[in-house]
Amino acid sequence: MCDGHCYGAYHPQCIGLSVAPRGKFLCHECKTGVHTCFVCKKSGNGVKRCIIPLCGKFYHTDCILAYSATQPHNKGFRCTLHVCLSCHITNPLNVCSSKGRLARCVRCPVAYHANDNCMAAGSLVLANNSFLCPNHFTPRKGCKNHEHINVSWCFVCSEGGSLLCCEACPAAFHRECLNIEMPQGNWFCNDCKSGKRPRIKDILWVKWGRYRWWPAEVCLAKDVPNNILRMKHEVGEFPVQFFGSKDFVWTYQARVFPYMEGDTHNIEKMGKALTEAAERFRELQIEKEMRQLQEDRKNDKKPPPYRHIKVNRPIGKVQIITADLSEIPRCNCKASDENPCGIDSECINRMLMYECHPQVCVAGERCQNQTFTKRQYTTVEIFRTLSRGWGLRGVSDIKKGAFVSEYVGEVIDEEECRARIRHAQENDICNFYMLTLDKDRIIDAGPKGNQARFMNHCCQPNCETQKWTVNGDTRVGLFALQDIPKGVELTFNYNLECLGNGKTACKCGAPNCSGFLGVRPKRRVSMKKKTKQVVTKEREDECFSCGDGGQIVSCKKPGCPKVYHADCLNCKETPFRRWECPWHQCDICGKEAASFCEMCPSSYCKEHREGMLFISKLDGKLSCSEHDPCGPDPLEPGEIREYVRSRSRCMEVTCWKKTRRRTMMTKEETCMTLGGIMWMKMMEKWRGRTWRSGGLWRTMLNDSVHPFLHNYSTKTLNRH
């Protein structure tokens, strides 16, 4: 051990000594006073030591400040080796992130709590307090599963096109969705910048070989078979077990991304695997919530600090409006009324959500419509909920329509709001207290506010927000929607606007809960008879024109699942905003289409559809002339085979599908009914006998042709 400032440890043979030195020992760096930065491994001027006495690590200021867990001080900084990175990413304000036994990486300033809940998957443990982190993964040459891969859709809007790809994980984004300029050089997403890594028991989407993305769970080493553990793998690789098949593989961060609740990618092709992944995800979420609750109850005896204020505080250029007394409306109440301007009165100001002014209202101080000005709030208390952090509840019973509290905070403009949201994203702050006041002003109760800031969201709330005009200015109040007993949590609907895929799970537990904040609550529908739920895809996976996958754009017309390549549409640039595919316009005149080919984008309006579409012989669906099975070159000739056998005056036509169908009919009837299977079902109702033998349907008709067929030509039958 070096007795200098670095506190380094060395093997004697590694520093050129045959035996360990006696007495005080100083390493070369401590002797010369020139220390090396622990991040960039370069020495020189500007290298400073961590302020923790026994740390002994030296850094360039710019190098160490690139790590989000670094804590600057007046005289220096505290490096990230003294903070659990996983705990810091989850909650930067959590004091427990720097407590407990930490294991530190021997090559870079990364540390985790020495347990499976915090340690990054793929870490190589060297001793009780030291390990190699996944940042030191080195891909093997020629190994296809070590190649970095990115998804072909945006993580925000789920659309394809020109994407900005992260260099460390599969994430991809549109530059417009992130609202940033095109970066120069390598670019990393916010999760990778903060150091977020997969952990044990995480549910991930994994890309293995040329297979599609598949859900899997990161496994503990003790749960992995020995033959899998003996497989060659590098630092940074971790074992995962696929849902559905239960297979094990080794993978790493650049080929996985997190599974989110509600993911339904290719649900019709991987239904069992997705069902297992969803169930396992919910189990792990419950375990995580209970563990977090126990930790929070142990550590958080008080709610997070904030500054309590009684009235709104304007910030920057924002102004609080004050009306002249002559502009304040006067109600029609009388001073002699029993409850002037009360809840049960016919006060016109109360009906229009205007608060009376004591100098204007006839009732004066007896007026009961001055709750905002007099701050006549319901008595409430802050308490710790089971799974939703801190909440608010009433100390006594609250009647329907009662004024609970005003929502108070800093009044900011839209520019300041965007700046605060950007700061929260950069610092992994996930709690917001912003409420829209009007088109130019927002109330932010985060740094400053009153007790109303602790009221949680619910899809079936017992309170609501109302915007009242008080002394000429707009203010927001919380009112009871129903009679609320003592001790029941007070909630209101946040009415968030949900953008992209970045959804926050709702934990209100209401019967009509939508599952996510920003998604409308479910409606209660009385079902007399249970019907089998049919899962419909929101969009297709392959291009409707060529049938291949890749970077695709989807039609924005409601109910249309079609997707296309930009090249198949002959578009030089990827269409954005509200774009409708060519399937909805007539191929001839461009008007709105009324009939569609179900095998290609061809479609026609009412005027031009005559004679353009036919009934497919394969499945009875409409198709254009390019897919006409009666033509010389049908779309899939390998699936249709016709041959003639001499048997009385009958011809046998065999249509090969997933199930074989053979129909015996006369030659004249066969020519007239080449429209296919739909006509076979109709003819079974006519003269003749029908029976089933050997899994084949047979219909024997007499030589005489039904009179109904004589009135229609072959072309007419095909068109129908």
Automatic annotation (TrEMBL):
Record-annotated PWWP domain positions: 200-262
Keywords: Chromatin regulator, Chromosome, Metal-binding, Methyltransferase, Nucleus, Phosphoprotein, Repeat, S-adenosyl-L-methionine, Transcription, Transcription regulation, Transferase, Zinc, Zinc-finger
Record domain PHD-type: where: 151-195
GO biological process terms, semicolon-separated: methylation
GO CC list: chromosome; nucleus
Bilayer-crossing regions: none
Main location (coarse class): nucleus
Domain SET stretches: 378-495
Boundaries of every Post-SET domain copy: 502-518
A GO MF term: histone H3 methyltransferase activity
PROSITE patterns: AWS (PS51215), POST_SET (PS50868), PWWP (PS50812), SET (PS50280), ZF_PHD_1 (PS01359), ZF_PHD_2 (PS50016)
Residues covered by the AWS domain: 326-376
Subcellular localization, as worded in the UniProt entry: Chromosome; Nucleus
UniProt xrefs under InterPro entries: AWS_dom, C5HCH, NSD_PHD, NSD_PHD-1st, PHDvar_NSD, Post-SET_dom, PWWP_dom, SET2_Histone-Lys_MeTrsfase
Name assigned to this protein: Nuclear receptor binding SET domain protein 1a
Organism placement in taxonomy: Eukaryota, Metazoa, Chordata, Craniata, Vertebrata
